[in-house]
Task: inverse folding
């Protein structure tokens, strides 16, 4: 399955939902993990990476 941003499992941009679907994980686990990693890395890099992924990962067309 390709890495795509999901339309149905999104909170902001669908990045974490798309990564969760790609990995076969629960989206909540990916969101909490991403938030914790972002928090412990001074938050700004996490937000910057999320915006880049939002731009780079194509959106689900279905």
Result:
């Amino acid at each position: 399955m390709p890495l795509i941003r999901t339309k149905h499992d999104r909170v902001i941009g669908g990045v974490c939902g798309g990564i969760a679907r790609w990995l076969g994980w629960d989206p909540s686990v990916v969101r909490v993990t991403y938030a914790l990693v972002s928090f412990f890395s001074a938050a700004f890099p996490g937000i910057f990476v999320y915006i880049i992924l939002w731009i780079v990962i194509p959106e689900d067309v279905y």
Q: What stands out?
A: The CA atoms of residues 6 and 14 lie 5 Å apart.
